[in-house]
């Protein structure tokens, strides 16, 4: 009896699955805002690069190329931020760490979303979700902004992310939808060790 | 052999490659099954990259009009769904100017390592063909193409595909159409690689891997307890036995490690139940202490060692014959035991069954040296007849006065009391013991028991099974295990050129039978020892325990590449001229 | 992404080697690898000051993917090798990695005694409730009714409870993490490395190939409702009602750490001859 009650109490207190945690992120000044923006982009770039490596190791060239492209794009965004702010080195993280909405940065996709037979369309679905989350993140910063300057800048960032959403959606129109049975592999898994 | 009678071939080798879910293993298996249905024999070996899914994969196939035990020296065709990392298989797929490289033009050029062999490129627009048939896959086109090249009848291919798609029957029409498209594309090659008609089949035939064969051989022999710990490339033997054993009243337990599995089977056998486990090199190393226990306590067990590249973790998914030394020499103390080596896939069944019989009869552990090539290759073979050789343990009967478990009998085999039998209780012991089984450090007891444990193995009459001795000549090839197939083909080629060669393929490695080998090598003045390892482990054993006549040469190299017929043939030819 | 405030501290990227992992895409171990690099950066060590010791299995491939020193040993004996390394070289930061098959089955005995011996090292087990590398057999943490080729009707055995065993056997730090939260894993790993004695971290890391149903672990995991304790009795009571998906640090103790002095004696062999003299 006690065990069941304790379990359900724990469940009530439990944090729901990723992405739904209410954000506490606030940027008190431009430096903090742009540090968030930089961290967001650079983490996304690194994650896309890791995804590309995993696809390369599994002979999925088409998706590897797509992830490399996305990595390059995010990397460029990150560099643009450094340029705009006149930073010669990446900014230090805020004290207490980054308060992302989910478990990682909003543009950082979960490793679990990969499949060795995934198609380019799937990769773009992942990118689309990332950009949407980034938009929500900056919108949150807008709402919680305490200075006008930060509010304006955050609004611009949110607008940029919205633009990215449109770009990905356009890109998706040019890419074929996954065929039925895209995940069928007639050969069983092998063991190698 | 690739002799041509009229324009048809007696043997063709084809490699099917692809990556990232291309399904070439499935295509290869279906090709083999269709060939089997049509009456041919065949062999399929799998090779793959390090990934668990989606990696580069190759199905290496040989289809023939007669039973075959090895791959040939070269491949007639390489058919690739795509080229991603397929260059990695170049060493395993030797091509030459008479070979075909079949690829999808949409996938680009074949890797240079293949094209520089002079092989002829053939375009097969796989992706296009598959796309034109909704619901089909490129590997079905490959299957149809390969079947068309070899002349395997369309109805047989359709039958095996229908069988495999039982659950997804609605996919059958698309698959059949894809196969047809592939076959049509192969028509351009005519009969160049078409197989000669199979000889009419009278025997019942099986599709089986060496691991399955060994497992079933154990069941025929009477094994009813198996302890299992998974290890590449032995796991499938254990996975075969898991559902099979209970059906005949046996049981399989998954152990926590190899130390547990070897001790578990000793326990079961002490209780009277014939027992077996299967492992590979690293596992055998762990089992050595308990193997000594089985020797000392005279408890029969069988350990199948499916050898892989060594030492240590080595090359897990590749074959090698490098556990000879540990099997023969690896126990501490003077610890004689049985070591056997099957020399073909169907022989994995017969020899494992024999090993069970010998272990039980002689109350000793038996190590069966199979290897990854046998274990994981799938072959079409005539149904191995049941030799009827089963476990026949000499069991002590109740009522015997003054029972001595370890009595120094003339044969060396003393009746074994099975727990549950009144009046005969004894304690089996790894400690040296008296005839009654009481621990003893006395010199008399030690010598008595050492002599007994040696005598029972050495004095036994193993019959003609101890080796396959074939042919006559002054040159002899002495080998064991998976090199036998290549040696046999090499000798046949030599014979066709007028060079007579004898083959001795040793099946019982330990205890050594020096008199029998001497008789087998009478009249021989040149001995070529063939083995697949770096250190010449079998050669050293022969030199240590046997008399070899005349000159001795060693031909050997380690895995992962097999020893091919032409390698042995070249050695024979050179030496016959010298 | 926390605590990287020292300008001279290395970034996580410095700990990732050039070898691309061959794990199936979707495997939880990718996140754990990422967490390792972050944790190493957080504790402020250099790659050459860290040694990662592993056994055999998919998870045990991890040392090659890091720039730290690595030892890829035999199946199940990583803890023994790591113990030898740490006792002989107490200056190194020793981390042991492997899977549930390697660690709880063949490695079970060494697991018990490593917890008991309490040498200062960190043991990370990537638990996916299956033997992945040998193509899908049950491991000690596999559910009793999971059917496989080697156990066609399931094992029927009660699962192994690693946190219970670790706590009972004497580990000084016991925690569970989930690969779906790489930053969370990194934070727990960093604390585990910093904590003296034997730190045990079980990381639930789904196997996308042999246990695709483990996608639902994301919904099953939940943060532990209470703070870590230094009272073994309290920890024991808590762990007895653990559902296997509580994430967080269970126990942070101050048990005696085994660290025999090395290099302290200054005598020479000749000085020891007196004992033999007639």
Mind explaining what this structure looks like?
Chain A has helices spanning 2-13, 30-57, 61-85, 120-144, 148-174. Chain A has 193 residues and is an all-alpha fold. Chain A has a domain at 27-91 and 112-173: Ferritin. Chain B is globular. The model of chain B is unreliable at 1-5 (pLDDT under 50). Chain B is of the alpha/beta class and 578 residues long. Chain B contains 18 helices and 22 strands. Chain B folds into three domains: 11-187, 3-Layer(aba) Sandwich (Pyruvate-ferredoxin Oxidoreductase, domain 3), CATH 3.40.920.10; 206-382, Thiamin diphosphate (ThDP)-binding fold, Pyr/PP domains (Rossmann fold, 3-Layer(aba) Sandwich), CATH 3.40.50; 464-577, Rossmann fold, CATH 3.40.50. In chain B, helix 9 runs parallel beside helix 10 (281-297) and helix 15 (483-496) packs across helix 18 (565-577). In chain B, a hairpin with an 8-residue loop joins strand 4 (41-48) and strand 5. Chain C is α/β, with parallel strands linked by helices. Chain C has one domain: Thiamin diphosphate (ThDP)-binding fold, Pyr/PP domains (Rossmann fold, 3-Layer(aba) Sandwich). Chain C is 27% helix and 16% strand. In chain C, helix 1 (29-42) crosses helix 6, helix 3 packs across helix 4 (108-117) and helix 5 (162-169) runs antiparallel to helix 8 (232-239). The termini of chain C are far apart. The relative contact order of chain C is 0.14. Chains in contact: A-B, A-C, B-C. The interface between A and C is large, with 45 and 45 residues.
In short:
By secondary structure, chain A is mainly alpha-helical. Chain A is 61% helix and 0% strand. Chain A is built from five helices and no strands.
List the helices and strands and how they pair.
The complex is a heterotrimer of chains A (193), B (578) and C (278).
Chain A: H1 2-13, H2 30-57, H3 61-85, H4 120-144, H5 148-174
Helix pairs in contact in A: 2-3, 3-4, 4-5
Chain B: E1 4-5, E2 8-9, E3 11-18, H1 24-38, E4 41-48, E5 57-64, E6 77-80, E7 100-103, H2 112-115, E8 120-123, H3 126-131, H4 138-150, H5 154-164, H6 172-186, E9 205-209, H7 210-221, E10 225-228, H8 235-247, E11 251-254, H9 258-270, E12 275-279, H10 281-297, E13 301-307, H11 324-329, E14 338-340, H12 345-362, E15 365-371, H13 372-376, E16 378-382, H14 443-458, E17 467-470, E18 475-479, H15 483-496, E19 501-506, E20 508-510, H16 514-520, E21 526-531, H17 537-545, E22 551-556, H18 565-577
Parallel strand pairs in B: 3-6, 6-7, 7-8, 10-11, 10-12, 12-13, 13-15, 14-15, 18-19, 18-21, 21-22
Antiparallel strand pairs in B: 1-2, 3-5, 4-5, 4-16, 9-16, 14-20, 17-19
Helix pairs in contact in B: 1-4, 1-5, 4-6, 5-6, 7-8, 7-12, 9-10, 15-18
Chain C: H1 29-42, E1 50-54, E2 69-72, H2 78-88, E3 93-99, H3 100-106, H4 108-117, E4 121-127, H5 162-169, E5 173-178, H6 182-194, E6 198-204, H7 217-220, E7 222-223, H8 232-239, E8 246-252
Parallel strand pairs in C: 1-2, 1-3, 3-4, 4-6, 5-6, 7-8
Antiparallel strand pairs in C: 5-8
Helix pairs in contact in C: 1-6, 3-4, 4-5, 5-8
